[in-house]
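By way of example, what follows is a protein record of this kind.
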Amino acid sequence: MIIGKAKTKLKFSFNGYEFNLKPKEKLLFADDVFRLLPQNLQTQFEKAHSVLPPFYEGQDLNGKTLLVFAQAAIGDALCMTPALREIKKRYPKMKLWVGISGRARPVLEGLPYIDKLLSHPAPIKEVVKADYMIKAVEMVGKPQFDNMNMIQYFLWKFHLYFAEDETPDVVVDEKIKKEIEEVITQIKEVSGKKKILLFHYLASSIHRTLPPRLLKDIEDLIWNEYVPVICSLPEEDIAVEVTLDVYGIRAANLSSFMKDIRYLIAAVSLADAVITADTATVHIAAGLKKPAVLISGAIEPELRCGTYPSVIPLRPNYHGQTCVSPCMIHATQTPCKEAQIKKQFYSPCLESIPPKVVYFALKDAELACEKDYPKPKNCPLCGYEGNFSLFEVINQHRIFECPSCNLQFTYPLKAMDHDKAYKKEVKDLLSISSMDYNWAKTVLPEEEEIKRWEKVPRFNVLLPILSVIPKGKLFDVGCSSGNFLLLARKRGFEVYGMETSEEAVKIAKEKFGLNVVKALSFDELPEEFKGPYKIITAFEILEHVDNPYKFLKDIYSMLEDNGFLLLSCPTFYKFENIALGYRKYKWWGEDFPPHRLTRWKPWTLFYALKYVGFSEIFIFTEPLVPEKVLEGINPKEVEIKQQDGLNFIIPRNITSLIVLDTLKFFYFNSRFLGNYLYALAIKGKTYNNWEEIIKRAIHYSAAEIIWEKEIKYK
């Protein structure tokens, strides 16, 4: 912060305020705000010193005055409101002052818990009256701000950490709302009573602005339900109308009515739903509890809307030549590097989002705003009865988490029709996912097929374990065309399998001579397939069943005494999820209902197996391998500055190699960071040192996988 003392009498307009200063009068600036002063005005100030109030560190504020000194954009100011509201709630006898930019001031005016609004820069004679102050300036570029959700950032700055309501307070000017409402009513009448979709495709940076073509494609999808309306602020874009004409977009353009932020707030309050790239708009929509979709390429959307239950965060799944989304570059005046390489204007990561995904996200946002909806009465695994927290809404399903065993499950819990899903007959997120069963139909000759699957990490890690399990009858649940059964038969097991796909069963029988039967449940098995077995395997099956407790109990009953279960499922805490935080609404892949019905944490799987009767249980994952590391981190290019001024840049592909090589110890020693979670469970007792066996298995598997692929990374 800078204290500037006027050298002479000064009268000027700056940062949304009018200033009339006497000689020697002092103002408190944020550093970057002072740099925004015209050069001729900067020279009219000299740097001075004053004793400022101490920074607030969580003291009792009753009877005290707290000054929050912020250089906040509109969105930042909105994100402060939960912290402002919460601190006044905790200390009702305090006085709360806020210094804010003139542009953001309208969103704070009228809030009952703010006692005084000061200008930014703020008069020192007012600042020194406060007992404490909070410095909330120069945020972008600071690690705390860049890596924390914005609501959480301000709660942290205020030493509050949590708030009862973590959505912004938004004041609607009723006079302005009435003015805008007349126009909105006319649009509804002309459109045949359609719902209003406010579409804000502009952002504060070219880097984050949505391609207008995306609006056109979305418009075609929603046209029977919504009429899209553009409400851009006047300083954002003077060519909105031209853009709409060029792309043939039928949206109503109300940008000429948007005189300032109060008009945008009124427009959002009258809309039925919102799709936006602009973060201020999503904060307004969240505060007004409107269904909203935030489309974000450069910035991880969870950082902007992670505490908003009515907002769906939509991110790209983009891997380019220079970056992987999100690149975390906040603002640029020119197209991003990736766009420049492709000789285009809009960021390719945003163009990579299928319009259907935006439409499905909009439908999920509507679902997320429903107040009365079916809630589970008990956990399908442990039977806990009580309150279940809602984790996310995705693909028109709600996912809850059990507070007792931590199982995440969809409710209602209903398995999908796999044949329809694989044929893309169901029009939802799965129709644009990578889900494909053709890999199970495309098989090689037996020896080649065995070599192929022995190299796959999720099977390779099991080979050392199989070598110490006593030979006997092995039953594979969901055996597909027999890939794992071939590996087990080669190692001396008498193999059996069950599979729901008739085509896969036919391949397993005719191509490989495997003893496999078509069945959807254990009850459908022929008598000769019901066991008992020395070992039962079930790879990536558990997450698809609608009664996980019964599934595991049935397996337990089919095992002989001192029999083994080898089970796997996608892990909640794989490296990518730990590195990036568990990103909600990950629309690519298939980690959502109705394809996957449950999500498992290590202790949840342990608890489940203990609950059904297994005596010895060991939890681990496949090795963490280089490709999986790069799914969780995004190494950047590095500029090396030399004293002679001859700087050079280490490109991203080289920094990636350096990181991967440095993390090799991770690949051998990471017990829980791989993509698939495993359980080795024993019905009875054994006398092996399974901890050492599993540790060795991970070591051997990592060595084989990485060294065989090392050429690829050099």
Remarks:
- The CA atoms of residues 455 and 708 lie 9 Å apart.
